[in-house]
Amino acid sequence: MFEVLSSIAEAFIGLFQAGGETFMGLVTGILPTLIVLITAVNSIIKLVGEERVHKFAQLTTKNFITRYTILPLLAVFFLTNPMCYTFGKFLDEKYKPAYYDAAVSFVHPITGLFPHANASELFVFLGVAEGIKTLGLNLNDLAVRYFIVGLIVILLRGIVTEIITKRMMARADRHVA
User: Strand (E) positions, the chain?
Assistant: First the structure.
């Protein structure tokens, strides 16, 4: 009886110890990198000028094609995951959900060509890559195809999410009025 209670207590504490180890891994791993990256990006924005960055972002948001391809591509490439979502702050509110959908959908397809963009997803690409190599196929072709299909998918997702967002905002406006 006491052994069972002791085992339950050990397992209970073990959960919190595992959580603590995971937390410490974040504190000594990704969090310092993320904080430095956030600081660097904010510093660059301040040096360049938020107005200039905003104008550049606005240029890429003039039409839906560049809004859901170029802007997410640049954000994911330069800022990587998860910082890439911060580029959404330069968009009108009505475009933010669609931009987020496009950016979050691109963090995997870019990994084959540019692993720095989302290193945590690299294991997925490498798993698929092993199968491709086993078949004797070209890994570079796979990476390029992932990238191109990724751009097409984020464009489609951005467009669909923008349409849904506009309809939901219009519906909310009707209910408020």
Answer: none
